[in-house]
Write a structure and sequence with these properties.
With about 350 residues, this protein is of the alpha+beta class. The protein is built from 8 helices and 13 strands. It has 2 domains: about 120 residues, Arylsulfatase, C-terminal domain (2-Layer Sandwich), CATH 3.30.1120.160; about 190 residues, 3-Layer(aba) Sandwich (Rossmann fold), CATH 3.40.50. The N and C termini lie far apart (about 60 Å). One of its GO terms (molecular function) is GTPase activator activity. This is Rap-GAP domain-containing protein. Keywords: GTPase activation.
């Protein structure tokens, strides 16, 4: 831990271009971008291992028998260029050839061609439901010396430093009538979950911050369940920790909080800088950008870009851990099963 006011430590430099959104393949609308507006052929299949799956194929412009194939299953979306050089003049490959090229061990009787034009729009909607572009992030205000969960959730008035940090994160947005991503907050009135929330749109992502001091306090509820109901169900939690004491990641009891990002204001040079530390549950894979050494940042646009990138990558990394990975696979399985019910289920 860096002691406040110590002018002897060196500040690591950061380059703006190094902050990359990770796992972006999950955001690629493969069908929408590469097939929907082109002549293509759609198939629904079912396999004992894959479960329901969808194959989309289109012929590539070159006259060499190459096709671009997209396989959608509960496990993944995978694109593959396949070549059927013996039948280069055909617009589509045979079902046997498709299954063999994509290493799917089922018979062609289990692969059904879908000619209904509505299938295209249904696939576009399926992709929209799975793309991760809306995030709700918890922000907890912790005063100097506070260690108890109830005490922290009961903080009613933010300090000037915390107010400055919130302005740094995004803009104060009135909730009543808000038509953007509200992260479960009430937009029909300004009493249930507060009058305002901190929001921002950044690099195509809508972020809403569940801020503890902006959700109404309940004087007769020592646990502040209204606040914890939102913040305790966020995957990523930012803790604004005043003072120099360390923060324990287990302070807030939650099965959903998988990544804790602690930001501490530190007097340095001519103003307030921020010291940052990150803790995640063991099942969450590592994610960037990597913290500099020491992890001390000025209040600047560069740090804002670093922090928002870290927050988004933290959420994406957490989705690779159980139970979130299972939930995502089940969601995709449900969507593919709905397509089966609508367009007919292939035999297995």
């Amino acid at each position: 831990m860096i002691e406040p006011g110590n002018s002897q430590f060196k500040i690591s430099k950061m380059n703006e271009g190094s902050f990359i959104i990770e796992n972006s393949d999950n955001d690629c609308a493969w069908f929408t971008n590469n097939f929907a507006e082109f002549e293509h052929y759609s198939y629904l299949g079912r396999d004992k291992i894959l479960g329901p799956f969808c194959i989309i194929v289109k012929k590539l412009p070159e006259e060499n028998g190459e096709f671009l194939a997209l396989l959608k299953s509960k496990k993944e979306d995978k694109t593959t260029v396949i070549a059927d050089t013996k039948k280069s003049k055909k617009k589509k490959p045979t079902r046997d050839f498709l299954l063999k090229s994509l290493n799917i061990n089922t018979s062609k009787q289990n692969l059904k061609r879908i000619k209904d034009p509505r299938f295209t729009q249904d696939l576009i909607q399926l992709e929209k439901k799975l793309i991760m572009k809306q995030l709700k992030i918890g922000v907890l205000y912790c005063k100097e010396g506070q260690e108890d969960e109830r005490e922290i959730f009961a903080n009613e008035y933010p300090s000037d430093e915390f107010k400055h940090f919130l302005k740094f994160l995004g803009k104060k947005t009135p909730l009543k009538g808000f038509t953007g991503f509200a992260g479960g907050l009430d937009t029909s009135s300004d009493t249930e979950t507060g009058e305002n929330a901190i929001t921002t749109v950044w690099k195509g992502h809508e972020l809403l911050f569940h801020t503890s001091t902006m959700i109404p306090i309940s004087l007769d509820d020592p646990q502040q369940l209204q606040r914890k109901r939102h913040i305790g169900n966020d995957i990523v939690l930012i803790v604004f920790k005043e003072g120099n004491n360390p923060y324990s990641p287990g302070t807030v009891t939650s099965s959903f909080n998988h990544v804790i990002i602690v930001v501490q204001p530190v007097p340095y040079k001519d103003g307030i800088w921020y010291r940052m530390s990150v803790a995640s549950k063991t099942a969450v894979p590592s994610f960037g950008p990597e913290l500099p050494e020491p992890p001390l940042f000025p209040s600047s646009n560069l740090f804002r870009e670093f922090l928002l990138t870290k927050v988004i990558n933290a959420e994406r990394a957490a989705y690779k851990a159980v139970p979130f990975s299972t939930k995502m696979a089940n969601t995709k399985l449900g969507l593919l099963t709905n397509l089966e019910h609508t367009y007919g289920q292939p035999k297995v």
